[in-house]
């Protein structure tokens, strides 16, 4: 009978399946890579990176409370960067994980800083307190900002050290 041999049919099916898998894997990788570039297209391998923790001083938080809220902000930024910009996260880790604590005087100032950071496509995560100890529930306490140092400085250069 003059049909297609079974082996040829199997190889053709395997070839089509392999090409399809390769195409979809490549498309997924390219989409993820473009997403990373879109988060911070200005990032170069030589850029220093840092994380800034902006603490509201008008709330009167004690030292331990500030430390806990800064820890929450650090972790929130880290988790966000793991998903949204792992390249930046690796650069920050390799550069020594620089963190700087700064002060701001109000929630309005904190929100303005967050908006400016987001406009520069920086990672910006604000922390709201649960209200179990010193601070009213839902109060924004700390803003974490992470990214290339030159961009972070555009947002925070006028703030004073905590």
UniProtKB/TrEMBL annotation:
Example of a GO cellular component annotation carried by this entry = cytosol
Keywords for the protein's UniProt record, in alphabetical order: Hydrolase, Membrane, Transmembrane, Transmembrane helix
Instruction: Name the catalysed reactions.
Output: an N-acyl-L-alpha-aminoacyl-tRNA + H2O = an N-acyl-L-amino acid + a tRNA + H(+)
Q: Which SUPFAM superfamilies match?
A: Peptidyl-tRNA hydrolase II
Q: Name one Pfam family in it.
A: PTH2
* TM stretches of this protein: 12-30
Q: Which InterPro entries match?
A: Pep_tRNA_hydro_II_dom_sf (IPR023476), PTH2 (IPR002833)
**Gene3D superfamilies on file:** Bit1
Q: What Enzyme Commission number(s) apply to this enzyme? A: 3.1.1.29
GO molecular function per UniProt: peptidyl-tRNA hydrolase activity
What the record says about family reads: Belongs to the PTH2 family.
The record's section on PANTHER family has: PEPTIDYL-TRNA HYDROLASE 2, PEPTIDYL-TRNA HYDROLASE 2, MITOCHONDRIAL
What protein name is recorded for this chain?
peptidyl-tRNA hydrolase
Which organism is this entry from?
Answer: Agaricus bisporus var. burnettii
Lineage here is: Eukaryota, Fungi, Dikarya, Basidiomycota, Agaricomycotina
């Amino acid at each position: 009978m003059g049909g297609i041999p079974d082996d040829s049919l199997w190889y053709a099916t395997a070839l089509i399946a392999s090409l399809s898998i390769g195409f979809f894997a490549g498309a997924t990788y390219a989409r993820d890579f473009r997403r990373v570039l879109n988060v911070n297209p200005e990032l170069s391998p030589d850029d220093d990176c840092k994380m800034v923790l902006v603490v509201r001083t008008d709330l009167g938080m004690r030292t331990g409370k500030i430390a806990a809220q800064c820890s929450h902000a650090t972790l929130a930024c880290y988790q966000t960067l793991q998903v949204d910009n792992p390249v930046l996260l690796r650069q920050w880790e390799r550069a020594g994980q620089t963190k700087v604590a700064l002060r701001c005087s109000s929630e309005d100032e904190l929100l303005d800083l967050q908006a400016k950071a987001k406009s520069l496509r920086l990672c910006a995560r604000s922390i709201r307190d649960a209200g179990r100890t010193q601070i009213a529930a839902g109060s924004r306490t700390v803003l974490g900002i992470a990214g290339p140092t030159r961009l972070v400085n555009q947002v925070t250069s006028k703030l004073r050290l905590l």
